[in-house]
Amino acid sequence: MLRVAIVGDHGSGKTTFLGLLYAALVSSGSGREDELRFHVAYDSLDEVTALFQRMMSGGFPDTTTKEGLHELRVELDAARAGHGLLSRIGSRKGAAGPSPTIHFSLPGSLDEASPGLHQGSTFGTGKWRDALDADVVAVLVDSTKLAPKGADPKSGPARAYDGRVEALLVAVQRWRSSGGRAVLHPVFVFSKFDSVPPAFLEAANLEATPPAAAKTGPRSLYGKVLLEPNLPRTLAMVRAPAGKKLRFAPPSYVFSGVRTETKGSPPHEQIRLRRTESGGWEPDYSKGEYLAFLDEVAKVAAATKD
Amino acid sequence: MPCALLGDRASGKTTFLGLLYSAQVKYGTGVHDDFRFHAPMASLNIMSAVYEGMKDARFPSATLKEEITELSFIFGYLRKVQGKLPYYIRAQNWVKPFSTLRFSAYDVSGEDIEEFIETGIASRPLIQQLLKSVVIVVLVDCSKMTTDIDTPSYKKMLRYDSTVAKLMVAFQTYKKQEYDRLKDSGVNPDPPIIYPAFVLSKFDTLRDDVLARLGLHQGFPEDKKARREYAEALLRVFVPQTLSQIRGGKVAGVSMDKAEYFLSWVRTEQQEGMEPVGQPRIVRTGFRPEGGGEPDFSYDEYVHFIEHFRKIANKIPDEILEAEKFQAQSLIRP
């Protein structure tokens, strides 16, 4: 089983990210082409279907949903070909047998975690065990809080968050010093990326849209340019030479966005829905990015031995 | 063979069963005599009351619906070889002339299902029976199919999709656990399989603008592949989680790939230029040599449905039939 921990501060979009990931799975899993099949574990379903219902009606996750949703366990099909994701798992299946199970977990909000964890301690970490044992750690970076290129990294709005992520990675290193998986794959998820003003990207000499997932080099460069002024300590940690036990894989990047609109009385922000090719509705989100993320996770699953 | 019939409130479950019974009566009294059915007294009482009401142009009443908890029929299909044998050989009873199937439909309250979904424990015997189902018939109410996202129907369909998807996974989980248990105890069972059947109920109420939006023409195709594509185009939009979890059954080790699609409609009286007042009345066919005074409904689809079970009867693993036989024997023991 591949463990993916989704971490971020309160309000950074962790639950929305997981909900949209499920929406991408449902959309592809019910598609006419029938190129992706997945099975959700029974004990993960209740909360995620409630979240799906809510998002398909234009609602963002409410407090009850956020408190109830802690995980999503998915088995991905190994037999279907034609999709990057599946062909990779498929090649693994021949050697290893059953379809890989991917366990996405939401251990909580980093800013609400125990003070010990903020100092890199593994003592009394409770539900953060999922993050300490993870194969992949998806670090949510709230794009609305990004500091521009050239800003002082010590005073940016993401400074405190940088410290918390760094401390988490230190805790993971300590935890793994006595055993466990040797590699940790960091994925930086820029949430609310559609909210970044074009002028901000222009100032950083970046295109308005990130390079496609297939262009790994330019995409990594794009991500690094955004991250360097905001999470310098975290980046330095990830780039540092491998320790005795734990090695960080080269980071990958996801640019997540979901369009919103103001509706209702009193006016409140809702998810904008768009028409699908099949005539139905879905949230207006960066679906390609989510499928690319699944592809990335599948790649890791194919390379990871149980 | 238990068969679960799943449907939302007012999705047409009792009407479906009434029309199925009506089709059984008509098909079972045809000149070919290759399909017979038997119903236990309790089921027969209810179904004949529903049938009588329909012949009197009435839809099933709420009181009748409340009486239903379990309805069962035994379908008997004449074995092909047996039908061709001379009479004196058939009379020896060397071979059972009919292959039989027990079609049981359960009406389980939403609370029971919710309890099982929440706790994962099937405490009520009815839920346990339900989970043993090999065929799952899902009613999808076409009158609730709308692409207008601000309507209650849209939200009801979203909720129904979540409920059915959860139930599908519950069935898969149960079957897989049973399979693993048998395997661990040294038995060599066949890989688990569930036959889903989708019934697009109230198909005549499916709105033209919905069909146009989905790029579908009016009328259900005849060809098997085209039927599947047509039905899946509707499911993809209105119950996508259910469709994806049916496809994903195989990933969990429980094949649900052999889904079949049927439609159900019953014609109701329309007053020219007037809105119907009260409960609509069923249109009945005229009397003809082959019968008459019947509700005007999608009879061919129901025959198709009955015949679908003939195919399943030939595919059901022996251990299920043996288990049923054993269960029946244990019931008649003093």
Helix content of chain A: 25-40%
Overall radius of gyration of chain A: 19 Å
Q: Pick out the low-confidence regions of chain B.
A: 329-334
Number of domains of chain B: 1
What is the averaged pLDDT score of chain A?
A: 87
Uncertain stretches of 5 or more adjacent residues of chain A: 88-96
Strand order of the largest sheet of chain B: 1-5-6-7
Give the overall form of chain B. Answer: globular
Helix content range of chain B = 40-55%
Give the helix tally of chain B. Answer: 13
Oligomer: heterodimer
- Which value, in Å, is the CA radius of gyration of chain B? 21 Å
Report the span from N to C terminus of chain B: 24 Å
Q: What proportion strand of chain B?
A: 5-15%
The averaged pLDDT of chain B comes out at 83
Main sheet: strands, sense, barrel of chain B: 4 strands, parallel
Count every beta strand of chain A, where a strand is a DSSP E run of 2 or more residues.
12
N-to-C CA distance of chain A: 7 Å
Classify the secondary structure makeup of chain A into a structural class.
Answer: alpha/beta
How many strands, what sense, and barrel or not for the largest sheet of chain A? 8 strands, mixed
Structural description of this entry:
The complex is a heterodimer of chains A (306) and B (334). Chain A is of the alpha/beta class. Chain A has eleven helices and twelve strands. Chain A has one domain. Chain A is 39% helix and 18% strand. The longest helix of chain A is centred in the middle third of the chain and has 18 residues, at 159-176. Chain A starts with a strand and ends with a helix. Chain B has 334 residues and is an alpha/beta fold. In chain B, 47% of the residues lie in helices and 13% in strands. The longest helix of chain B has 33 residues, at 152-184. Chain B starts with a strand and ends with a helix. Residues 329-334 of chain B have low confidence and may be disordered. The A-B interface holds A 25-27, 29-32, 34, 37-43, 45-46, 49-50, 52-53, 56-58, 75-79, 99, 273, 276, 278-281 and B 117-118, 120, 147, 149, 154-155, 158-159, 161-162, 165-166, 169-170, 172-173, 213-215, 229, 232-233, 235-238, 240-241, 243-245, 247-252.
